[in-house]
Amino acid sequence: MAAPDDTTRPRVVTSAAARGALALLRIAVSIVFLWPVLDKTLGLGYATPSERAWLNGGSPTQGYLSSLEGPLAGTFGALAGPATDWLFMLGMGATGLALLLGVGTRVAAVSGTLLMAMLWATTWPLAAGSNNPIVEDHVVTALVVIVVALTRAGETFGLGGLAARVGVPGWMR
């Protein structure tokens, strides 16, 4: 017996207000992924000054990965380079764009969770003196992208609803 189509299943969240709040949460977390891409590419002067912008020959990952402390610092420091720059920027950008548009949110949940898990490991929050060794911003961001995907938040104020109506497979919405 075939599984029911996503468009025939009842809504995961039945309250219109809750669906709207989840859509706004989806859009907000998309900016968490897109902002570093913009700042590191253009050097907007927040985390990245213009002289270290990717467009000006800077490396989006070199400075961060080479300044880490903790037991994994050497491993992550060795990863810095052009390939890592491209993988990081494409991963963050594609995840952020999928969340912003509300399509591909299930794939974005997987990629976003993996990105946040790696960033969590680079910060090594388990060290003495850290603010919260278990639930910090990377963990919360990963949980948010999972909730966005599971509640089909891309269907409200996003292209996920259109994708469902035209028959795009569920994992792509």
Can you tell me about this structure?
With 173 residues, the chain is mainly α. It has one domain. Helices cover 57% and strands 0% of the residues. It has 7 helices and no strands. Helix 5 packs antiparallel against helix 6. The model has no long low-confidence stretch (mean pLDDT 88). Keywords: Membrane, Transmembrane, Transmembrane helix. This is DoxX family membrane protein.
Strand content: under 5%
In total, the number of strands is 0
Order of helices and strands: HHHHHHH
* Unreliable segments of 5+ consecutive residues: none
Quick check: average pLDDT? Answer: 88
Number of helices: 7
Largest sheet: none
Specify Rg, calculated over alpha carbons: 18 Å
Structural category = mainly alpha
Number of domains: 1
Transmembrane segments: 21-38, 86-103, 108-127, 139-164
Keywords: Membrane, Transmembrane, Transmembrane helix
Protein name: DoxX family membrane protein
Organism: Oerskovia douganii
Helices and strands in order, then pairings?
Elements: H1 16-42, H2 62-66, H3 73-79, H4 82-101, H5 105-123, H6 137-150, H7 160-166
Helix pairs in contact: 1-4, 1-6, 4-5, 5-6
